[in-house]
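Final report, Chapter 2: Outcomes

The project's central promise was a pipeline that accepts a single protein chain and returns its three-dimensional structure in a standardized token representation, suitable for archiving and comparison. That pipeline is now operational. To close this chapter, we reproduce one record exactly as it appears in the project archive, with the input sequence first and the structure output second.
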Amino acid sequence: VAGGTSVEVVGCSSGPFAFDAVFPAEATQEQIFEEARDLAQSALDGHNVTVLTYGQTGTGKSYTMYGAPGDDGLAVRMV
């Protein structure tokens, strides 16, 4: 995925998986929220919306979604 927004899985007949955004490890909560902020309105407008965090244990998935005291994550910012 480095530098791109799609992934091809060898042996998978579904084709490449495409993503609207992929963030590097050094991305801030603010950068991620700015990219995802319109998703909250889309959900309220009746569209299906998914935010996926994926990675190994300890890589920041929960932090991205929920944040830390003084550094809110996506779930808190979208409400």
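Archive annotation: The first strand starts at residue 6 and ends at 7.
This record, like all others produced under the grant, will remain available to the consortium after the project formally closes.
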